[in-house]
Amino acid sequence: MSISGQAQDKVVLVIHGGAGTILKKNMSDEKEAAYEAKLREALEAGYAELSAGKTSVKAVQATIHVMEDSPLFNAGKGAVYTNAETQEMDASIMRGHDKEAGAVAGVSTIKNPIDAAIAVMEKSEHVMLAGTGAEEFAEKQRVTIVDSSYFKSEVRLKQLKRVQDHENAVLDHDGDDRGEFDGSENEFNIDYIEDKKFGTVGAVALDSSGNLAAGTSTGGMTNKRYHRVGDSPIIGAGTYANELVGVSCTGHGEYFIRNVVAYDVAALMEYADMTLEEATAKVIEKQTEMGGKGGLIALDKDGNVSLPFNTSGMYRGWVTESGEITIEIYEAGE
Ligand code: ASP
């Protein structure tokens, strides 16, 4: 979906809370209301920063904080479990006008990984720090550190167990070691697919100086091993911003890395002169052809927004300059 900034009030902030198998028929009214309320709160937090004349980076940070602090999303507090029953979180930020960027990968004790990514951008000479080194740096920069017990939850642990049971079952039955399923909606598969749904969070903001910033934060994928890192902390893959556009992605990270998705949107606009809508449609088409499930949010310098995805849903929303909020979850028409 794309909304033209010319036709209406321009969009100043757009967010996602992950794409995946999100079907209305599997959603209770309470759960839907809880997601909508949290997405609204996140948009309001970022909009308050923009209205106060703060930068797009501050708006992205405030927005992502709300989602990182909520157990509803796979980031911060709600980060999914690794195979070793730990959390390993990734986050990144990019500022469009000077192309400064920061990222952390595989951190386990940082309450709000987006803060650590911003600290890397603003206070280090590096772009990406990983693991305990990133934690040590973050602590020195007074980023809030928590005990790893802060991230523990029964719900996420159960999810891990279901994914592990399911993947073992597949290994046993047909030797498919990729842990992929055909998507058929029998009862056994539903939980697996639900548990695998990608709940990463992201935001792109446009501030009153016309500067864009994009940020993404995630717990990665349930049951991941070997310190697997997805696209979210990789500048150009999961997050990108320049003077023209800001992009944050969600989905099966390996495909987003291989297609350098976030940068591809910007490159198509810059070099092929595509509109935001054309560029994002092209990129998602490429993802779909390759089998990469997910979606993205993109906001350009004129306040046009595009939120395409090739899954059944994506938690998403945007707010215009005058403060009008829109929130959507499912495919259009559902
Ligand atoms: N893209 C993330 C990853 O692969 C997952 C997600 O979007 O939820 O780590």
- Provide the β-strand percentage band: 15-25%
How far apart the termini lie comes to 14 Å
**Average pLDDT figure:** 90
CATH topology: Glutamine Phosphoribosylpyrophosphate, subunit 1, domain 1
Relevant CATH superfamily: (Glycosyl)asparaginase
In helices, the fraction of residues equals 25-40%
Structure annotation, total helices: 9
Bound heterogens, unique? aspartic acid
The tally of structural domains comes to 1
Task: Please give the radius of gyration in angstroms.
Answer: 18 Å
Question: Can you offer a commentary on this structure?
Answer:
Mean pLDDT is 90; it is low at 172-191. The chain is of the alpha+beta class and 334 residues long. The protein is 36% helix and 23% strand. The protein has a single domain (2-330), classed as Glutamine Phosphoribosylpyrophosphate, subunit 1, domain 1 (4-Layer Sandwich), CATH 3.60.20.30. It has nine helices and 13 strands. A hairpin with a 5-residue loop joins strand 6 (201-206) and strand 7 (212-218). It has helices spanning 29-51, 56-68, 113-123, 131-140, 154-174, 187-196, 253-258, 261-271, 276-290, and strands at residues 2-3, 11-20, 89-95, 100-107, 128-130, 201-206, 212-218, 239-241, 245-251, 294-300, 305-306, 313-320, 325-330. An eight-stranded mixed sheet has the order 5-4-3-7-6-2-12-13. A five-stranded antiparallel sheet has the order 1-11-10-9-8. Bound molecules: aspartic acid. Aspartic acid (ASP) binds at residues 18, 74, 198-200, 218, 220-221, 230-232, 238, 250-251, 253.
Notable characteristics:
single chain; 334 residues; alpha+beta; Glutamine Phosphoribosylpyrophosphate, subunit 1, domain 1; eight-stranded mixed sheet; five-stranded antiparallel sheet; binds aspartic acid
